[in-house]
Design brief:
With 318 residues, the chain is mainly beta. The protein has one domain: Neuraminidase (6 Propeller), CATH 2.120.10.10. It is 3% helix and 50% strand. A hairpin with an 8-residue loop joins strand 3 and strand 4. It is globular.
Length: 318
């Protein structure tokens, strides 16, 4: 089964959108957040949130998240911590572009209908986030972070109640950004978007619960300087990315590997629109169903979902 639906947010004067995040609720529903902007992506950005209830097959219309901020915001990241607390992390601009951003966090009620006043997580200008953290067995959280100034990636760590974060690791030798982090078979894996003309995705491993990391190296998957997403499904790694090295953000494709990331299935181009289809975010619910959201032509957010049968069929056809 493959399902697709456009997510809508009607806010007067805000015709553009980008950078969605999706998460599974404790009741096996779904929440998604993204930011709207009138014309320029770094001016007057506002975050909206949409819900899909556990027994529903469609999404509610997205509504504005009231955060009490007057500056432009972007790149929301939604997640629940191990105690079931909902968090909304995002960036706030203190200037004209992302190199003037800072990282903030707000705690929400379980259904995301309201959030606490945001607190600054990191004041360093240019700090950006894109994907949710991983929570380890000892309670530590690892959050993938990057800098729009240095064009490098970092990991921040926190312990319960996850209100204070500190720098844990800096990938300062590689110009890679927008990391996504996942845990597969006792191994932690980071995948990155490149900076510059390598036009390939990159990866790093940790085999000691994130205490040390290998130097990032290139993967055989193309990347046209666009965000990607990774998720674990039945012990396999799925990566969603733009399957081209041209200066474009289409098509959107899915490839599979085991935890070594050595060999990859042929790409399945599941979104072939000639518009921009970019910045995916994916998760897996309690029943093994895969859910994802991504930017569609900067006008809408598109939601897709697929199950084991669809994955098997797509892999066979490719």
């Amino acid at each position: 089964m493959f399902c697709a639906e456009f997510l809508h947010a009607t806010v007067s004067g805000y015709g553009q959108c980008h950078s969605a995040s999706i998460t599974v609720t404790p009741q096996n529903g779904l929440l998604a957040a993204w930011y709207l902007y009138p014309e320029e992506e770094t001016r007057n950005g506002r975050i909206v949130l949409a819900r899909r209830h556990p027994e529903s097959t469609s999404w509610d219309r997205a509504t504005l998240v009231e955060l009490g901020t007057s500056s432009s915001v972007g790149n929301p990241v939604l997640f629940y911590d191990p105690e079931g607390v909902l968090w909304l992390h995002f960036v706030l601009l203190r200037g004209a572009y992302w190199d003037k951003s800072v990282w903030l966090a707000a705690r929400g009620i379980p259904d995301g209908k309201s959030f606490s006043r945001p607190e600054v997580v990191c004041e360093d200008l240019g700090t950006m986030i894109r994907h949710r953290p991983v929570f380890l067995a000892d309670g530590r959280a690892l959050m993938p972070v990057y800098s729009d100034r240095s064009k490098t990636s970092q990991l921040f760590t926190s312990m319960p109640p996850y209100t204070e974060w500190r720098l844990h690791h800096h990938f300062d030798k590689s110009r890679v950004i927008q990391p996504d982090l996942l845990e597969v078979g006792g191994k932690l894996i980071l995948v990155f978007r490149p900076v510059g003309d390598s036009r390939s995705a990159w990866r790093s491993f940790s085999v000691d619960d994130g205490r040390t990391w290998s130097e990032p190296i290139r993967l055989p998957l193309p990347n046209p300087l666009s965000g990607l997403a990774a998720f674990e499904w039945n012990g396999r790694v799925g990566i969603v990315y733009n399957n081209t090295r041209e200066h474009q953000r289409h098509p959107l494709s899915l490839s599979w590997s085991d935890a070594t990331l050595h060999e990859w299935s042929p790409p399945h181009d599941f979104e072939t629109s000639k518009f921009e289809v970019s910045y995916p975010s994916f998760c897996v619910d309690n029943n093994g169903q895969v859910h994802g959201v991504y930017t569609y032509n900067r006008k809408l957010i598109k939601y897709v979902s697929f199950d084991k049968a669809w994955i098997a069929d797509a892999t066979t056809r490719d």
